[in-house]
Design brief:
Helix content: 40-55%
EC number: 2.4.1.-
Bound molecules: 2-acetamido-2-deoxy-beta-D-glucopyranose
Main location: Golgi
Largest sheet: 9 strands, mixed
Subcellular location: Golgi apparatus membrane
GO molecular function: N-acetyl-beta-D-glucosaminide beta-(1,3)-galactosyltransferase activity
Number of helices: 12
Order of helices and strands: HHHEHEHEEHEHEEHEEEEHHEEHEH
CATH class of one domain: Alpha Beta
Structural class: alpha/beta
Membrane topology: Single-pass type II membrane protein
Shape: globular
Length: 392
Amino acid sequence: MVKSILSCKLDSRMKRFRCRTFWLAVSLGVLVLNLRRNYSDQTKNLHKSDHINKRIYDVERQEQDSQIRQELPSHYVFPWPKCQENTSAANVTDFSSLPSRIKDFLYYRHCRHFPMLLDVPDKCRGADKSADVFLLLVIKSSPGNYERREVLRKTWAKERLHNGKKIHRVFISGTTDTGFEKLRQNKLLEMEHREYNDILQWDFVDTFLNLTLKQILFLEWMERNCPNARFLLNGDDDVFANTDNMVEYLQSLKDNDGGKHLFAGSLMSGDPIRNPNSKYYVPVQVEINSFPIYCSGGGFLLSGYTAMVIYKMSQSIPILPIDDVYMGMCLAKAGLKPSNHIGVKTFGVNIPSTKLDQYDPCYYKDMLLVHRFLPQATFLMWQRIHDSNLKC
Ligand SMILES: *[C@@H]1O[C@H](CO)[C@@H](O)[C@H](O)[C@H]1NC(C)=O
Ligand SMILES: *[C@@H]1O[C@H](CO)[C@@H](O)[C@H](O)[C@H]1NC(C)=O
Ligand SMILES: *[C@@H]1O[C@H](CO)[C@@H](O)[C@H](O)[C@H]1NC(C)=O
């Protein structure tokens, strides 16, 4: 019998079938046992390495936590009451006919102080040492733009020395959305902040019409934490900025180490747009009839000196919905002028023919700043312009 089962040499077809099924079941059983053993070995190893990783993680967390606790001085109590809407704003002529974003703007236009949700007070190693920061990158970014920030951290906004000069980075942000989505967005920024220490976030709604507010809050932060930074790049998170070239350009300014006026970018002029469908709509109720010359907010370079002058001027100029125009108004009030730099292309680079590669690194390697660049393009271009084999 045993012999016949082993060899499956049974007569009837039915018996042969049973015999095969038997062997199939046995092999399956062996296979399952083996797999289980492997699996439990693996999970044992996994648990072991998990355990070690968690211990390393906990230690790092504790270090970071105590660092963050140190960063947020316990005596720092937000000194202003919560800003209330100005109900009289609704008294202006034809208020009811204005788009709701403009109504919102008018209701909260007077609000200039908001609590900080995330701070990096030692970004410049304290106000006294802040003169060591040669170029502070101040990048306007709203919470949802995670991918942009990730790529910038690896490319042009990497904190580093270039030509012996320190480049530091902060993203400036408000809050977006409501309810759980708002909480998730805030959590995301908080996690990034723990990992990179590069986010300044205030508790106001991060909209296009609140960008001026964002700029003023940043300048207030700068006066407190980084007043002597030599130069700043102020711009959007969807630009390609050649920060190496910027440092070289700023170093070449023989008579300015950041203590004199500089405000350079892509010059703009024009009057307020009265079309309610435009992103840049400024209704007559905002009470501004002409714009000064200004630099496009996509990105401009300024000296620490000029940043502090703008901050002082801003204290007596009502907030405008367009942040770059507002900067121009602050300059004008101080009797200073913005200047044009041909390397700043906030309307893109004009590549002479559509037959040419619109992303040929040779067109970009000598630029200071180009708008607009999305994450993949930024990552690729940064690698390509640094390729030592690049021949132009
Ligand atoms: C605005 O209008 C309200 C009534 O709608 C009135 O009570 C208030 O005094 C007005 N404010 C101003 C500043 O005119
Ligand atoms: C509120 O709005 C009214 C009408 O625009 C304005 O006259 C007043 O100065 C505003 N109040 C504050 C506190 O900004
Ligand atoms: C600006 O932020 C304030 C504070 O969060 C908010 O109340 C207001 O609606 C925002 N303004 C605009 C135009 O979004």
